[in-house]
Amino acid sequence: MPKILILGGTGLLGTALAQSLLRAGNNTVFVQTRAASKRGAIVAAEMTPLVFPLEDKAALRSALDTYNIDTVVDVSQGYQQATSILETVVSVAKDRQAALAREGAIGPKLGFVYTSGIMVHGSPAERVSDLSPVGNKLASDKPATMVSWRPSHEQAVLACRDFLNTVILRPGMLYGRNAWNFGVWWGPVSALKAKGGEKLSISADKSTRVCLVHVDDVASAFRAAIDRLDGRLGDWPVFDVVAETISLESIIEGTTEAVGLKTSVDFIGTGGDVFLEAMGLRANVGSSRIRTVLGWEPRRRDFLLNVGTYYAAWEAAQ
Ligand SMILES: NC(=O)c1ccc[n+]([C@@H]2O[C@H](COP(=O)([O-])OP(=O)(O)OC[C@H]3O[C@@H](n4cnc5c(N)ncnc54)[C@H](OP(=O)(O)O)[C@@H]3O)[C@@H](O)[C@H]2O)c1
């Protein structure tokens, strides 16, 4: 049974991934969290909780050694800790290889899955893919400011392939369940529904185009990648994970219709806010390689037809 440690495993993506790995029946799942209060829920879900902050290198190292972890998956929001996590994982991987060498033995590399996002492509004028350069002069556009550090971190992860079996997955915007990120657009819809009013103000440009993917489909993409970490991901283990691309205008129109709001909509721009800027890209990403290399197919591709269900799930989770 491969032993998989999920950093940030209590989050939107982490929870879906942990459940998906467990349901597959052939994994032992360890979930890292900063919050001791989440310990009980993790145990109740048949997983092992490991409570430590992501910046605690000694605790991460100890977790990898104590439980002989085979694969580490970073699905955390610990952006500040990304480098220190990678350093620790590589250091453990090197120590394992040295220990094997002392025994004259060969063994598998430690697995490392890093979660990036399609925001590294920015708002390219032309169609891009996971084969397109990001974060340098060769790229079609610059990454969203909030994730401008990410392309170089992706490069740092890829540079460790002598020691790690690694893959980088770049999901589009996640929807489904408590998809917290939809709050920027559905928050104003919910407020207008509750209090009434004439106009819906959305903090984005009207030209915003969103690459969407259901959280369960992202979890299945991660699982497919984890299952193939042992050398079956080809020369370029980087995958954009997108199911469909929809204009924000259609998303808002579909949502207001689904909840029975008759209102005009003002797209008021992002006002220089870096989070809103990241949410308000004009995405233009094709994601066919993950289908051919990993055999992944998203099961949800009808976001607009079911937007009422997703909105209701989001609202109920608030
Ligand atoms: N959501 C999306 O649409 C989307 C799209 C593309 C890429 N991604 C990437 O996927 C990863 C996971 O996203 P997510 O939406 O699942 O995130 P999330 O729900 O916010 O969960 C991430 C988890 O990270 C942990 N964490 C560690 N340090 C943190 C910090 N400084 N601030 C906040 N949380 C921290 C938290 O767990 P504890 O509190 O239990 O420690 C949290 O539950 C991120 O790297 C994100 O950039 C997300």
Which SSEs are present, and which pair or pack?
Elements: E1 3-7, H1 12-23, E2 28-33, H2 39-44, E3 48-51, H3 57-66, E4 71-74, H4 82-102, E5 110-115, H5 150-158, E6 164-171, E7 173-175, H6 183-195, E8 199-202, E9 209-214, H7 215-227, E10 238-241, E11 244-247, H8 248-258, E12 264-267, H9 274-279, H10 289-294, H11 307-316
Parallel strand pairs: 1-2, 1-4, 2-3, 4-5, 5-6, 6-10, 7-9, 8-12
Antiparallel strand pairs: 9-11
Helix pairs in contact: 1-7, 3-4
Keywords: Signal
Signal peptide: 1-18
InterPro entries: Epimerase_deHydtase, NAD(P)-bd_dom_sf, NAD(P)-dependent_oxidoreduct
Structure description:
This protein is of the alpha/beta class and 318 residues long. It folds into 2 domains: 3-171 and 214-241, 3-Layer(aba) Sandwich (Rossmann fold), CATH 3.40.50.720; 180-210 and 244-285 and 295-316, UDP-galactose 4-epimerase, domain 1. 37% of the residues lie in helices and 18% in strands. The chain is built from 11 helices and 12 strands. Helix 1 links the parallel strand 1 (3-7) and strand 2. Helix 1 crosses helix 7 and helix 3 crosses helix 4. The model has no long low-confidence stretch (mean pLDDT 97). Bound molecules: NADP nicotinamide-adenine-dinucleotide phosphate. NADP nicotinamide-adenine-dinucleotide phosphate is lined by residues 8, 10-14, 33-35, 38, 54, 75-78, 115, 117, 171, 173-174, 181.
